[in-house]
Amino acid sequence: MLEVLHSLLFSTLDAAPALVFATLGAMLSERAGVVSVGVEGMMRTGAFCAAVAALAMPTPLAVLVGMVAGAGLAAVHGFLSIRWRSDQVVSGMALNLVAMAGGTFLLESLFGPNGTPAITQLSRWNVPTLAHVPLLGALVGHAAPTYLALLLPVLFHVLLTRTPLGLRLRAVGDKPHAVATLGLSVSGLRWAAVLGGGLMAGLGGAVLSTAVLDRFEQHTPAGLGFMALAAMVFGRWTPLGAFAAALFFAFGNALRIGLASSAPWLLELVPQGFLLALPYLLTLLVLALQGQRGHAPAALGTPYEQESR
Amino acid sequence: MGERTRQVLPSVLSVLLALAVCWLTIALTRDADTATRAYLQMLWGGVGNWPAFLEGGNANAVLRPLGEAAMKAALLTLTGLSVAVAFKVGLFNIGAQGQMIWGALAAALVGAHVSLPAVLHVPLALLAAAAAGAVWSSIAGVLKLKRGVHEVISTIMLNWVAVSLVDNWLVIGPLRAVAEGHQSSITGTAEILSTAQLPRLLGDSSRLNLGFPLALVAALAVWVWLARTRSGYETRAVGLTPEAARAAGIPTLWRAGGAMALAGALAGLAGAVLVLGTEGRYPGTLGAPYGFDGIAIALIGNNHPLGAAVSAAVFGILRAGGTRMQLLGVHKSFPELIQGFALLFVAGRMVWLALLDRRRSRQAAVEVPRA
Amino acid sequence: MSLEDASLDIVPGELLAVVGENGAGKSSLMNVLYGLYHPDAGTFLMDGKPVRLKSPRDAIARGIGMVHQHFMLVPTLTVAENVVLGREPTRRGLLDLDRACDEVAATAKRFGFQLDPRARVDTLTVGSQQKVEIVKALHRGAQVLILDEPTAVLTPQESDELAQVMRGLVQQGRTVVLISHKLKEVLGVADRVAVMRRGRTVAEVRASETTVSALASLMVGEGSRGAALTGVPVTSGADTALTGAVAPDAGTVSTGPIVLDAKDLRAKGDNGRPALQGVSLTVHAGEIVGIAGVDGNGQRELAEVLTGLRVLEGGAGTLLGGPLAGLTPAKAKARGVGHVPEDRLARAVVKAMTVEENVALGRHRQPPFARGPWVDFKGRRERTNQLLATYDVRPPDPTVALQALSGGNQQKVVVARELDADPKLLVVVQPTRGLDIGAVAQVHARLREAKARGAGVVMVSLDLEEVLALSDRVYVLYEGRVTGHFPRKDLDERELGRRMLGAEPDHG
């Protein structure tokens, strides 16, 4: 039993970072009032660029390239939705479609259908003496993103609740006009949040191709960006809530994969499809029970216009 | 510049710009000549190689591509209409994909397991698909109207639920076709009966089937409904200013819920056209994100039913032609990239309008001294 | 809204009032002073030196503070967080909330405000929120404080309190700029008055050297004043307000049949708290019944209950021969209830639709707007053209989008539509808010016309002058209860004000 828990914990921690980063990124952008359905596309861009960059440079640097690429896509989103006040959902979905088709096109024309060539994965932190200690050992043997994923939610929490910037970001997501009348720049704050969100989504994608896998695959990130949206909503737009939700979803995934190999008879009773659907069903259930209005930032999705008050 | 021009022009310019940008992409990764030839192949693959045909070629050189294009256009029209109709009540239906999955499954089941003469079988299968799609979209509708759950989030969730339940369970589990004889590697549901097939309209050489006219009729019907009937008027009022509609005595919940159900029904029909028209059964997966394409089609068509039909025709042609581009080593998904860029540029509608207005005011400034 | 050629001198240590009609450019001018809008031409001198205000940040840095008409507070943050936003005290890079609370408490105390720095803003009353706004400006060291229509949402008594606050600030050597269109109030508190009309400053006078009627004619301008006065009596003007007396045209008590008889009405507000706690009222055919009260005391909810927009939680009543319970907007319309709601763009019209589509709204199922399930385009066009001509809507084009019309013309379309249905009970809420004086006069004339045709009119207005000018009877609402009921002959502004604050009747 303990062994099962141990391996579940290990694979959860191994798989969670990408989801955690993307969730934090989506949350950051939405707390400032900019809808973030484009997170899937930003992850894909980050994953692709990191995998390609890793062919030419050390993998940690390539992860940075992936982050910048995610932010690049976010910049397009910012340009359309902040500068030009376009519909934020439309802009985000457009980026998803471009990243989807563009990724496939570039992959196939540069490398062929089987993904990019293999790269050096991010190195893991191995502590042989600890590795066999039950449960505690599950904490070691991961790559750096895992530890970052444990640290960043706390940092984000501090940022949002304990710093001037966080106060301003929350204010701009709830009532941008109030922020504007104090001489602060609404678009500046929103740009910061959107670009920051892009960096995080790009990081999430980069982690997929440099730590979870060792290449960019055709379907990366395979809907993980949408699951990040679910985790964000599930976590009520708070960093710690989002982290808990992302971890929970990742745990569910690890459980499903673990069951498939260790207890296939159970999957006869509970079809795998149900388990796959579970995170989304749970999110729907939670939303249905509480309604969404109470927790979403008040000005979410509303372009800021100075004259309309 | 008239109001209608302002509506249409940004879409047209966006598609043109997307074509230009994507041409550049090939020209940069390959060379300009390849790019141009690839575009020609795409065109011929979509509308048929007319030069060759007119020089006395085979009629199939034209019929087959047109059939492929019409088939794709039919699917895109229906999912595009689905998104556009939901937009009319102010709802963003990202869930056309999931609704289409259930529609396709329902059509496949009715097509395979009910025996009826064709005149009844086809309508019944279509109806079942529409109903299945409507039920799925209504979940999002009810959550929105009764619980205030944002439809963008709920339809995204419902898409994944549909994919998980149907593709990862039903069609590989309980509904999987029983293998006949030595064919043991079947994926998907059982083959539909011939009475449920949508009749082909141009003989066997072209896959053009009843689905295309059906989609066009649907577009026309949606347009007439919205523009000319009382309930269509009410639906638009609900979408534009729900509180004013409520104050005017319009049953807003029914109108919004009804439009969302209709959106699901249209996406469900798209599933039926795919299954009854070309696939013959529910394959392992839908094969392409038609539901997401519908978002692009609706928005490029400026959420107008006929606009959606036109943009579906354009992208149907491009995508049917995409397979021909492979001859030149350009991936067949290339038209999807064009479509993605077109949507991105349409999302910048405000930019287009600002550019157009600036141009107009500059013209006006020039004209003033003359006047 | 625009500024044509506006000039304004502000002298340190004075209380300057800027008056003008709605749309005269007062708020635009102030937003320029505050750096929110940027002028196309003109100069701005401070202490004799030209200054360019690129954003409110510049204005704040130069000691200008502004209290906006619609509060600029983040409802989910606390008082202290709202006040320090943008200049937060920090300790080692982190927000120092304790210090913020102390600082805010100190500032509030220095100027005599009672505020809990840790309270969330959305739990405060309107009056307290306004204090937060003032503290916000003072906390930033504002030497010049601009208040934009600050009394619009306050009771007369709260307004008096605000006047004292403003005088106190001036005594401390600060400068206060008060924007208002309430002339009497302005004369009571200001040192100097600047008058704006159509984007220009047309006069600057000492408050002690002018009168309400002199200011009113400056505000309206001779030409347009004449035009407005030939039509119908101008009501928001000065005379009635100055004397507190009642125009001579009324005093009649309608004895027509009862169109509304409601007992002990109860309903919840949007926030789930009780908004109506036992309201009883009757309305006869052929009278205008005014509903007075400070904003947020149940008037809006009452209007919504009467038009079927809000669920009745308790009490009962008869409305045009049917029960009030279970009323829906559709049923109300069918019984002959007309409705001119407060928030026109949200409730009364679909601004992206054409004028004719808006004229049909609500009656779109009957001839001449529909034939069977189909829209009757021809009938709709004919009827719309008729109404546009009768009500002098400009431009008289049924095919333009409604949002292309001015606010006054939009309101004319709404009034035209509602009266065209020949309502037996007309519920109007703030019917003239934001309209220019000509349109106000027209709307008032139409309401009197409806009354003359035998409709019962329920008029909710926050503008006491409007209530006094039009009503045959007045109910005063306070916290969802009727705290006063006056026939026209007993109307008295001070007494109404007392009742609006919940005072029990004692003398008279």
UniProtKB/TrEMBL annotation, chain A:
Keyword hit for Transmembrane: yes
Membrane topology annotation: Multi-pass membrane protein
Residues that span the membrane, as ranges: 32-54, 61-82, 94-112, 133-160, 191-213, 225-249, 269-289
Main localisation: membrane
Subcellular location: Cell membrane
Annotated keywords: Cell membrane, Membrane, Transmembrane, Transmembrane helix
Keyword Cell membrane: yes
Coiled-coil residue spans: none
Name of this protein: ABC transporter permease
Organism ancestry: Bacteria, Pseudomonadati, Myxococcota, Myxococcia, Myxococcales
UniProtKB/TrEMBL annotation, chain B:
Subcellular localization(s) per the UniProt record: Cell membrane
Keyword vocabulary terms for this entry: Cell membrane, Membrane, Transmembrane, Transmembrane helix
A matching Pfam family: BPD_transp_2
Secretion signal span: none
Keyword Thylakoid: no
Domain of life: Bacteria
Membrane topology of the entry: Multi-pass membrane protein
TM ranges: 73-94, 101-120, 126-145, 152-172, 208-226, 256-276, 337-356
Main location: membrane
UniProt-recorded name of the protein: ABC transporter permease
Native source species: Corallococcus praedator
UniProtKB/TrEMBL annotation, chain C:
Organism this protein belongs to: Corallococcus praedator
GO terms of molecular function: ATP binding
Superkingdom per UniProt: Bacteria
Domain ABC transporter: 1-223, 260-504
Keyword annotations of the record: ATP-binding, Nucleotide-binding, Repeat, Transport
InterPro entries in alphabetical order: AAA+_ATPase, ABC_carbohydrate_import_ATPase, ABC_transporter-like_ATP-bd, ABC_transporter-like_CS, P-loop_NTPase
Listed Pfam families: ABC_tran
Gene3D superfamilies tied to this protein: P-loop containing nucleotide triphosphate hydrolases
Protein's UniProt name: ABC transporter ATP-binding protein
SMART domains listed in its UniProt record: AAA
Coiled coil residues, start to end: none
CDD domains cross-referenced by the UniProt entry: ABC_Carb_Monos_I, ABC_Carb_Monos_II
